[in-house]
Design a protein that fits this description.
The chain has 124 residues and is mostly beta strands. Helix content is 6%, strand content 50%. The chain has one helix spanning 100-106; strands at residues 3-7, 10-13, 18-25, 32-39, 46-51, 57-59, 67-71, 77-82, 91-99, 113-114, 118-123. The radius of gyration is 14 Å and the shape is globular.
Length: 124
């Protein structure tokens, strides 16, 4: 069973920075892709950024240039460095993982394994 645990959320003033981390365990054999999503208050969940099957990293336009996704120092970890945070970035942030072959077939944001989320609150 895939288990994803996020950490690093908190409250920060606009213009500040936070780094989220995701630790994955229970991954079955196969190449896994991972991504970050977020759900702002009263809105649906949206993709933020993802590591694609070919290793490229994609971001939504709203965070490009401010957020950076990278593999963490520990095995099966994924970090999200968030700089110049805005009030619009306030959301519950989720880590997601799935077999890359499923992502390639289903679409960049079609993940089936999710963490419990970590809250990011940006005050203006």
């Amino acid at each position: 069973q895939v288990l994803l645990v996020e950490s690093g959320g908190g409250s920060v003033q606009a213009g500040g920075s936070l780094t989220l981390s995701c630790k994955a365990s229970g991954l079955p054999s196969g190449t896994f892709c991972m991504a970050w999503f977020r759900q702002p208050p009263g809105k649906g969940r949206e993709g933020v950024g993802a590591i694609l099957s070919d290793g490229r990293i994609t971001y939504i336009a709203a965070v490009r240039g401010r957020f950076t996704i990278s593999k963490g120092a520990a095995e099966n970890t994924l970090d999200l460095q968030m700089n110049n945070l805005k009030s619009a970035d306030t959301a519950m942030y989720y880590c997601a993982a799935d077999l890359c072959e499923r992502i390639v077939a289903g679409g960049t944001w079609e993940y089936n394994n999710w963490g419990q989320g970590t809250q990011v609150t940006v005050s203006s």
